Amino acid sequence: MNRETAQNDNDARLTRILKRVRRIELLTRGMVKEMLGGQYHSRFKGQGIEFDDFREYQPGDDVRFLDWNVTARMNEPFVRKYVEERELSVMLCVDVSGSGDYGSQEDSKRERAAEVAAVFAFSAVQNQDKVGLTLFSSDVEQYLPARKGASHALRILRDILNIEPKEKGTDIKPALDLALNRIAHRAVVIIVSDFLTHSSDWEKSLRAVAAKHDVVAAQIMDPRELTLPDAGRVCLEDPETGEQILINTSHPAVRDQYATRMAERQDALVQLLRRSGVERIAVRTDEDYVPALKAYFRSRKRRRRG
Questions:
Q1: Rounded to an integer, what distance in angstroms lies between the CA atom of residue 64 and that of residue 130?
Q2: Concatenated DSSP letters for 189-211?
Q3: pTM recorded for the entire structure
Q4: Which strand (E) or helix (H) includes residue 95?
Q5: Domains in the chain, start-ordered, CATH in brackets?
Q6: pLDDT one-digit tens code per residue, 276-291
Q7: How many degrees, rounded to 5, is the angle at CA 188 between CA 117 and CA 123?
Q8: Which of 51, 124, 253, 280 pairs as cysteine with 90 (C-beta 3.0–4.6 A)?
Q9: Helix or strand or coil: residue 224?
Q10: pLDDT tens figures, 255-275
């Protein structure tokens, strides 16, 4: 391939990415504004005010803060006293390992992960909160400190789609350790990953992060990874290790064994997250992810009220 051809390919790829960023931006902005904005605010307290106590009215106080019930009981004017809430930081930890490039549907797992991350990023922007990004494979590939603003959220979205990771494997521990060491104040840490990792030493780090921050796990799944189709003899390749295996998918026992192993892996992940106090959002590439996100925000809003 000559230099001119390579440049043309890069330009075409960049054009596709920019179009994709624009489409995701429009999609998620509209969804955040119409459906998730208020629920995000109820779930994740951002900049605003929080009731603290009552005190006697003083000249110059805002009359809107008068509490008429307390005033009637005390026969003196009392106002509600508020304290400012600390603004919130949201850290998106997004898996960009080799397995994310797989997709049996219109979207790859990486593309679906970018959309889910964009929902949280634009929700934070709308609520005037800061949002940062950690991209990881088997190591941390990129780190962006949390900042405010729509332009920063757009950069996050572009970086998720555009990065060419140095490593193909998956290890969640380095990203968790970075969150633990770099984020000083309590924040929301959202891990967006398929959680297909050969490493098993990240639970301790997850528990440590969950003890300090509010951690959410958004699991991205492709239906072809959950069950095998009846497609005869096929060669399967691990996108992270390059290992290949030839199997006969027409054999019912093979499909059953595969489904059983995937179910066991899935159950182990669910149990690990539960032990760590981390809530899971299941996102499939063959389904609309909006209901899953809305259900998550509603469930957490109910728990806050309780």
A1: 30
A2: EEEEE----S----HHHHHHHHH
A3: 0.80
A4: strand 89-95
A5: 16-44+87-225+268-300 (3.40.50.410), 48-85 (no CATH)
A6: 999 999 999 999 888 8
A7: 45
A8: 124
A9: helix
A10: 999 999 999 999 999 999 999
